[in-house]
């Protein structure tokens, strides 16, 4: 009888020695899991920071491209304005030359009139003829002036029409750029929504895994607690 009792005591003693080892293992695994969760959290935060940095770089690149396009547009506009100024200057030079020619013609006409007045005193017949020449000359000058005025009005209308066409073209280009920017913004928002949805799904799966793992750990802990209580009850009955 004494030998059997001694054997039973040895078995119970080995159970007591194994119990702290299981609790220590459970605590190490729990601590390891906490470290893994912290690492995942840090990686997630780094991923979000990288995502924000990439978005900022894209926005900065878009702004630089927009500035370059605007500078190019202004440069072309300045070149176009210089050409127009040059054309206007040439026209003004031509107009001054025509005015000088007309002035010379007027001077010549006045000289001829004086000579004609002297000749008219001697030749009345030539006086009438000279008058007709003067009338014809004035008519031609009036016609020339009207013709020049008509050409100037025509050129002015063509210039205005060209300006309107240029304005329409620039407005259309601006509208295209605006449509492209709106489309790009929509695509960016759509991609962000997709990435967010993907992240939420991954996060949900991770939470489910953690929940399942937590249930398993809870079950193991309950089993350990139950075994410990059973062991204490047996010890109490024995005593």
Keywords:
single chain; mainly alpha; 2 helices
What does this molecule look like?
With 239 residues, this protein is mostly helical. It has one domain. Helix content is 99%, strand content 0%. α1 runs antiparallel to α2 (124-238). Mean pLDDT is 78; it is low at 1-19.
How many beta-strand elements? 0
What sort of overall outline do the alpha carbons produce when their principal axes are compared? rod-shaped
Main sheet specs:
none
Percent range of helical residues: over 70%
Which structural category fits the helices and strands?
mainly alpha
Q: What ranges have pLDDT less than 50 throughout 5 or more consecutive residues?
A: 1-19
Number of helices: 2
Strand-residue fraction?
Answer: under 5%
Number of domains: 1
Alpha-carbon distance between the two ends: 18 Å
Report the C-alpha radius of gyration, rounded. Answer: 52 Å
Query: How are helices and strands ordered from N to C?
Result: HH
Mean pLDDT: 78
Write the layout of secondary structure elements.
Elements: H1 2-122, H2 124-238
Helix pairs in contact: 1-2
